[in-house]
Amino acid sequence: MLETFDSKKSRYASVGVVSSLPGELIDSIWYIIDLDLKGLIPLDNILSFDLINNDGRVTMHFSQEGSEVEMGIDLPFGFSYDFPQEVYAYDDGNRQTILLPNEIRQR
Predict the structure, then answer these.
(1) pTM above 0.85?
(2) What sign has the CA pseudo-torsion 88, 101, 64, 45?
(3) Residue 88 to residue 104: CA distance in whole angstroms
(4) Which among 68, 70, 49 has a CA at the least distance from the CA of 60?
């Protein structure tokens, strides 16, 4: 069985994410998944991250539907109100992508 969010799979960020978040914040999401979340709780194929202003710095708040586990990770990067309020990390089994809420296809 393949592991969800396996770091050996291809990883991407959508056009919307790349145009609205600095690269270090995008990279931080992958680091949070790999270093802080994997092994702590079983991960679904879609994870939610809220970007919160914490005294001018970014706090990345993790949650996933159906789980009571939530986590806030303080990052050393400046916050901007131009950042999206929320991003998703999605694993389709072959590749993983960070997306904005409006980029997720509704079926």
Answers:
(1) yes
(2) negative
(3) 9
(4) 49
